[in-house]
Amino acid sequence: MIAVTDLTMRYGDALAVDDLTFEVRPGLVTGFLGPNGAGKSTTMRVILGLETPDAGTALVGGRPYVSFRRPMREVGALLDAGAVHGGRTAAMHLRCLARSNDIGRERVGEVLEQVGLAEVAGRRIAGFSLGMRQRLGIAAALLGDPGVLMFDEPVNGLDPEGIRWIRELMRRLAGEGRTVLVSSHLMSEMALTADHLVVIGRGRLVADTAMAELAARFEGDVLVRAAGQEAFAHVLRASGASVREEPGGLSVTGLDASRIGELALRHGVALRELTPRGASLEEAFMELTEDSLEFAAEGSTR
What we know:
The chain has about 300 residues and is α/β, with parallel strands linked by helices. Helices cover about 30% and strands about 25% of the residues. The chain has 2 domains: about 1-215, P-loop containing nucleotide triphosphate hydrolases (Rossmann fold), CATH 3.40.50.300; about 220-275, Alpha-Beta Plaits (2-Layer Sandwich), CATH 3.30.70.
């Protein structure tokens, strides 16, 4: 498990992380979501001991990352796929990492096969595409077979097949009982990958919730067009719905479309339209973070 408690991080006068607290539990893919500049990468760097916070703690399994003698056996991380020596081959890069953490050489071949780079193991990294470098970074994260994994924007540079592969990999790792933290600024990606969400903006916690709960929280309405609309509105309200008139129809919340249809049938109301209208998760994300955007285009909704 990862536990971040009262974490604060400054760069000069800039407050990057502001009294942030959350936990990442094993057995789930936890999405770490926020606009660009929200403090996601800084938080992950603090967890990995690459930054020293001004206040608070970030622990892995109850311990600071720097206390691990062989950290790659405990925590695997992909932060920057470009931070590799371009003159080395993929296999050489992983062998160096393996040697530093007392990991057997045979594991190098296993992870290269796992990420689809076995055929280019002898090629120099300088000739790799961004997507290939991402796969190599994921291989490095998996090298020590750790129980905790952290990925910062892992789908960058991947083609559609690669994106589907990384989604399936994360779910499989979480299904094995590992702790998986994945950062992104795209709700659409997290909606297809994460079980739980930690959303931050300007370094502060905005939401810490299950994906299903977030979807329910931003559940939309049902558009109803019917003969005898005014009388049917009374029926809906008597059944516990909230009803708002709009041009040509009714906006109904509190009852789903199937229940509205049953009421219409029971009361002999002819329905002309019955359309569920759900707010997209992207819209939910924008609503959650609208006050946390570092930059907003002119005319954007704030």
